[in-house]
Design brief:
Helix content: over 70%
Distance between the termini: 30 Å
Structural class: mainly alpha
Number of strands: 0
Radius of gyration: 16 Å
Number of helices: 5
Largest sheet: none
């Protein structure tokens, strides 16, 4: 049953990542990969919130599998983040490459921490 929940989450997460990335990038006239940044931050928020809920209350294992390794893992993309950062550096946009690396890591960790705290506070 758990693997079915992971697959169900992935069926939503992977296309959602691609469609969100394309929608965001078409609205920004910059080389900075805002689409990838956005989906990665969203996945950090979702996984952080799930972690906070699971540590403060009983969350069904099926839901944990659906949202965690299913939806959030396929929504986020470390490989695309890495590729885009290297591509920025190779094309001379070194400032954007450094900003992408630093801001993505700091914002992702901060978002996960805040989402965890929010979920724990909400459950009380």
């Amino acid at each position: 049953m758990n693997w079915l929940m992971v697959i169900a989450g992935a069926v939503v997460g992977a296309p959602l990542r691609y469609l969100t990335d394309r929608a965001v990038q078409t609205r920004h006239d910059t080389v900075f990969p805002w689409g990838t940044f956005g989906v990665n931050i969203g996945a950090c928020a979702g996984l952080g919130f799930l972690t906070g809920l699971a540590s403060a209350a009983a969350v069904p294992q099926a839901l944990q599998h659906l949202v965690g390794p299913g939806l959030c893992a396929t929504l986020s993309t470390y490989s695309t983040f890495s590729f885009e950062t290297v591509r920025l550096a190779e094309t001379g946009a070194r400032y954007f490459a450094a900003a992408n690396a630093a801001v993505s890591v700091v914002a992702g960790l901060g978002t996960a921490y805040l989402a965890t705290a929010l979920a724990q506070a909400a459950v009380g």
